[in-house]
Specification:
The protein has 119 residues and is mostly beta strands. Helices cover 0% and strands 61% of the residues. The strands form 2 sheets. Strands 2, 4, 5, 6, 9, 10 and 11 form a 7-stranded mixed sheet that branches. Strands 1-3-8-7 form a 4-stranded antiparallel sheet, with no helix packed on it. Strand 4 and strand 5 (45-50) form a beta hairpin. 32% of the residues are buried.
Length: 119
């Protein structure tokens, strides 16, 4: 199983970016998917989580600005980031809890994509 993230880049404060992350490989189903981020010198933190039924959870710092969604037909999770702030600068990692067989499931992580917000 692989998770391939894309969509990071450099943007000015107040701008928008959309991250995508597609899962591929031996996949029977996917439970939760989401995004974490890690800024320099800080611990990795949860940004957004979406369940298989579409329920979402967000970090307080991004509520109202970020929207997490998924396309189950494409095994893909998205993160729409609006009103970006310099403090959103970090490497963003996508995540998925993937069911491979009836008795086997694991957490998988993407390679990370850099988001830089200039002031």
């Amino acid at each position: 199983v692989q998770l391939q993230a894309s969509g990071g880049g450099l943007v000015q404060a107040g701008g928008s970016l959309r991250l995508s992350c597609a899962a591929s490989g031996s996949i029977f189903g996917i439970n939760s998917m989401g995004w974490h981020r890690q800024a320099p010198g800080k611990q990795r933190e949860l940004v957004a989580l979406i369940t298989s039924s579409g329920s979402t959870n967000y970090a307080d710092s991004v509520k109202g600005r970020f929207t997490c969604s998924r396309d189950n037909t494409k095994n893909t999770v998205y993160l729409q980031m609006n009103s970006l702030k310099p403090e959103d600068t970090a490497v963003y990692y996508c995540y998925a809890h993937i069911i491979q067989t009836l008795f086997r499931s694991n957490d998988y992580w993407g390679q990370g994509t850099q988001v830089t917000v200039s002031s």
